[in-house]
């Protein structure tokens, strides 16, 4: 059952991911954004299979919710209709496929030769509670630093979106 | 055949390569940005899988790391999209081929 779910979610993730970057039916960025939402939701399914329930929820809430709404806002703000008909050159496709194929070969060969004899650790009960405790004890300093980072990002965005950027 | 760490890592690798292909091939800044998100998500999947299949029982360090990655990615998206909007205001384009003012 779990295996079938894994293969389903993995297949959906990769197909939707491919449709984000190369959709044969439409070059509209809005379609890409929608397929990115679907990719992220199927990744959340994989997270559930890995017993990372809190992260699956965060993935859906933060990525599929907040981040993608931001993306869609900007796409509609920019009104990119005229850009749709640009051609992708053959050179860039060949170069891209070559370089990505090379890095894929490196990844896969290292994956095949790695001595991975990992076994699944026993199922965790209440891992969200433990995650929260870990976050506020051992990882308290990074947590606070991240809050400062969010503040900095917010100030930066407000400054960048002013009308007369100096 | 049981699904193990290798399977999750293979999915992560393929997703990362899809994102990289998008960054190289596509010419629209927003799509390049979405491909970057794909790559970040692939890395997240690998980290969660490592955390799950760790030899130490109850190892949640990977999940904490992914939590921070998601937060940083949210901040990064906000700043990056603000930059794209500011650029669009100045140059009226979101296309990388038109943005060559740094070229010598």
Descriptive overview:
The complex is a heterodimer of chains A (166) and B (104). In chain A, α1 packs antiparallel against α2 (29-49) and α2 (29-49) packs antiparallel against α3 (53-78). Chain A has helices at 2-21, 29-49, 53-78, 90-113, 127-136, 140-160. Helix content of chain A is 73%, strand content 0%. The mean pLDDT of chain A is 86. Chain A is built from six helices and no strands. Chain A is mainly α. Chain B is 73% helix and 0% strand. Chain B is built from three helices and no strands. Chain B is elongated. Chains A and B meet through α1, α2, α3, α4 and α5 of A and α1, α2 and α3 of B.
A few lines on this structure:
By secondary structure, chain A is an all-alpha fold. Chain A has helices spanning 2-21, 29-49, 53-78, 90-113, 127-136, 140-160.
Comma- or semicolon-separated keywords:
heterodimer, A: 6 helices, globular, B: 104 residues, mainly alpha, 3 helices, 73% helix, 0% strand, elongated
Write the layout of secondary structure elements.
The complex is a heterodimer of chains A (166) and B (104).
Chain A: H1 2-21, H2 29-49, H3 53-78, H4 90-113, H5 127-136, H6 140-160
Chain B: H1 5-25, H2 29-52, H3 61-91
Helix pairs in contact in B: 1-2, 2-3
**Based on DSSP secondary structure assignment, what is the total number of beta strands of chain B?**
0
Shape of chain B: elongated
Q: Uncertain runs of chain A with pLDDT below 50, 5 residues or more?
A: none
How big is the Rg of chain A? Answer: 21 Å
End-to-end distance of chain A: 58 Å
Please state the structural category of chain B.
mainly alpha
Largest sheet of chain A: none
Unreliable residue runs of chain B: none
- Helical residues, percent of chain A: over 70%
